[in-house]
User: Fold this.
Amino acid sequence: MPLDELRGLLARHARPDVSTPIEDVLIFRADRPFPPRPTTYGKVLALVAQGTKRFALGDRLYEYRAGQFLVASVDLPVTAYFSEAAPGLPGLGVGLNLHPSAIAEIVLQAGPGDLPAAGPDTPPGLAVSTASTDLIEAFTRLVRLLDQPRDIAVLAPLIKREILWRLITGDQGAMLRQFGLPDSNLSHVARAVQWIRDHYAQAFRVEDVAQLAGMSVSAFHRNFQAVTAMSPIQFQKQIRLQHARLLLAADPTDIAGVSRRVGYESPSQFSRDYRRQFGGPPSRDAGRFHRRTRTAAAG
Assistant:
């Protein structure tokens, strides 16, 4: 089976921090299902070799399992988890960070007619597809280099290019090609996404961010929703709440201060939004983080 060797390699080389000696290559392992956790899917290709992974983006729910992959072309706030994993049958996956410049270079080198025609619509910033045998085999050869360290510097870049080519010419080719072109609708939305992420604590007018993206307000709303599954204001709220949870973990004694630091003027509104996002009030997480800190200090 195409995935058998890849599973063995991933199980052997997985590390707690997911990084590997191969630049931009990540290995994921989960020995048990975890509760859904807010995280950010950056610009990445992630292939599941064993288990099932689920995630939510806005009001969209996704699932991908062994032999399927996810492509994210924009930094998106999601809630994700391995739903099928056990110590004897862990969830296993491999990821490759994506760079627009590398994709653009390959697109420009393709010959006339080598690429499928792109559709007129702006693609979503995140999609799931079934991996071809060629893509699985390329990933297997890439991970196999971890057993041959002297070959990494020369061969890894070549195999990465092959993986990108398989993507560009596959089901999600339209997304990848827009991702690699600086003047595409997807790239314009990505610019706005980055601005909101960098300035999440400050209020903004959608008209100003649309201008930054180089779009009319109506086109910006339409394309932003297509890419992120959220409105710009909803996207900002997701980012604020994710940062709030991180800040509470660092300082669980100052809920009101955290609320202000992430941009909320009303602590009660912050508490309501936090409860809807994480299933409980900020005081619950703050208490749990505080107990964890005291236990660590006592140990």
